[in-house]
Design brief:
Layout: H1 15-42, H2 48-81, H3 87-114, H4 120-158
Helix pairs in contact: 1-2, 1-3, 1-4, 2-3, 3-4
Length: about 160
């Protein structure tokens, strides 16, 4: 009898699906964080949507792509500093560090887009206000990303 079993190796995930998953994640996280930060600087005024769109565009074009390289550097740095820590502890430290750094950068770009740099006191106050308001969401996402999504995403992208 002829063996009718096909090759059972899993099919490779198409590149467009990998891009779609990463883009969706970036839209959700970056869009929400810049939305919170924009709201803290403008409220729900007639300027909210234009400011949010321009802040999110800056984040999508510059901040998020830079985060991929930064994530790699921070992961290596944490691993070299804490080699005896459990993997999930290192992932947690990496996630929280990334959240603080990336959220700080997003708060700078969003605040600069809305408030500008002409009045340093106004800029600092607006930056701190938007950073602090977005911090709970950023830290929550960091925990979800570092402990749950990052390992699954790495497996998905490797396929």
């Amino acid at each position: 009898m002829e063996n009718l079993t096909a090759n059972t190796s899993p099919e490779k995930t198409p590149l467009y699906q990998k891009i779609a998953v990463l883009a969706s994640l970036m839209l959700i996280v970056g869009g929400t964080l810049t939305g919170i930060m924009t709201y803290m600087n403008t409220g729900f005024s007639e300027n909210f949507i234009p400011y949010w769109l321009s802040s999110f565009t800056i984040t999508a074009l510059f901040v998020i792509p830079a985060s991929f390289g930064l994530m790699s550097l921070i992961s290596k740095w944490v691993e070299s500093l804490l080699p005896h820590y459990k993997t999930h502890h290192r992932q947690l430290i990496t996630g929280v560090t990334m959240a603080l750094i990336m959220e700080s950068i997003m708060a700078v770009s969003t605040t600069a887009n809305i408030v500008g740099f002409s009045d340093s006191d106004a800029f600092a106050a607006a930056w701190l206000h938007s950073f602090a308001a977005a911090l709970p969401f950023g830290l929550c996402m960091a925990l979800i990303m570092s402990l749950y999504l990052k390992p699954k995403l790495a497996q998905f992208l490797a396929n």
